Amino acid sequence: MKREYVYKxxxxxxHWSQAGLIIFLAFTGFEVHGSFRxxxxxxxxxFHRVASWMLIGLIIFAIFWHLVTGxxxxxxxxxxxxxxxxxxxxxxxxxxEPHPTKKSGLQKLNPLQRLVYLGFKLVLIPxxxxxxxxxxxxxxxxxxxxxxxxDIPLGTVAFWHTLGAFLLMAFLVVHVYMTTTGRTPTSNIxxxxxxxxxxxxDEDEPVDEAKVxxxxxx
Length: 218
Ligand code: HEM
What we know:
- The protein is mainly α.
- The protein has a single domain, classed as Up-down Bundle (Fumarate Reductase Cytochrome B subunit).
- The protein has helices spanning about 10-35, 40-70, 80-90, 110-145, 155-180, 185-195, 205-210; strands spanning about 1-5, 195-200.
- Helix 1 (about 10-35) runs antiparallel to helix 2 and helix 1 crosses helix 5 (about 155-180).
């Protein structure tokens, strides 16, 4: 085993602040939705808007960071060992079999994680954030008659935004469960806190394979 630096400082900051903001947005959003009453509608709506601007700012920084560091390549989808990975999560790990893919700083994500996180970044987050922005400016756009968005009924906007919120919550539950499937139940979470993780020595898997898969070449 070797101790390797897997998650960089910004990445960890971005991960935990995004998680915190999404949970807070879900909490305030579902209060606005009428699911429960804790803060009161007015406060919940105000906090929801403030947190949503923080999330938008964070997303802009994260996009910039992924582009300048080249880390976006970690999310290039691949079918290489995808079936093995699915087999591992559905059967192998319950029989104590080893992980079919090796993790490293250059290859943080297994093929299934790449697909799921890419969907998270390109579908789930845009769905929720864009519908949220339309929701936020719906009245003003309507009033000033600036864009065609004014034609979309508010109920439709709320539907897509709430759908995004439900899917994000479903993602969160599965995501938290999956974090426990590392070397030990808490090793993945510890790595996202400290940046370091105990990983197996890369004996039989040459670096070239990672490059073929579209890995960060640094
Ligand atoms: C940048 C991101 C987001 C923006 C701009 C945004 C914006 C909004 C706005 C404007 C509303 C209407 C309430 C109000 O007038 O304040 C709303 C409601 C809501 N938001 Fe968000 N939101 C965002 C992210 C999220 C996230 C991440 C979640 C949950 C995970 C969420 C869940 C909800 C829910 C459940 C409602 C109530 C929908 C309804 O029943 O009408 N929002 N959001």
